[in-house]
Amino acid sequence: MEKPKSPKSAKMSLASSVAAKKPAPAKSRAKSSAARKPATRRPRIPYSSEEIREIFRRFSIQRPEPKGELEHVNPFTLVVAVALSAQATDAGVNKATRGLFALADTPEKMLALGEDRVRDLIKTIGLYRNKAKNVIALSQRLVDEFGGEVPRTEKELVTLPGVGRKTANVVMSMAFGIPTLAVDTHVLRIGNRLRIAPGKTPDEVEAAFLKIIPDDYLFHAHHWLILHGRYCCKARKPECERCVIADICKSLEKTNDVPALLVELPAQIV
User: Fold this and answer.
1) Selected catalytic residue, list 8, 21, 131, 184
2) Regions of the chain where pLDDT drops below 70
3) Is 203 a catalytic residue?
């Protein structure tokens, strides 16, 4: 005959049963649910791969050899010019650096010039005091760690004072011929306005563009986009009647569907 369970054993069995049926804490359920949540996908763009290729094909006909508009004579003066261009126009930077580069076109000469003299020469540029400090610090770093030579990799370039990802990409492309895509305010605007490479940050827009730009157009893509944004798809009001991709463009701000005549523009004077 089976021995009857004690009241204590019965209570323990009942407690175990209730515990087994008790739902997991909210925190654990949330964590489990988050783990099962699919990764966020990038928004789909309203362009086919054929349309994207056609956009850059037209840019290539319009400007076969696009160039940056910052004046420089070597990689060092280029990295200084690009660093100085933050929150300033290329024309304004060129006006200030003509005198500066005539006196100092190497890190060693820049250090000999000194921060006070550099500051006086670039005082027409916004944030000139802090930029003068960065130019001297940048020059010192080049002398101390790179033998006075501008490095070729992004990892090394961004260690220089005043040099960010955009500056590094410009230098890699213009000084060393390495295909990159630097995202400035124009490229950021074009990516979002045209809905071709949407993103909230320069890094997001850069990544979106790199996914879609055909490899054979990548080297010049940076300058095509900048020049298109600077002279046609302007910040305040896009000049759609002058746009060679007006028929392809999917911008909600577009005012014209007829593309401008596709002809090569006069050579840039840089």
Assistant:
1) 184
2) 1-43, 269-270
3) no
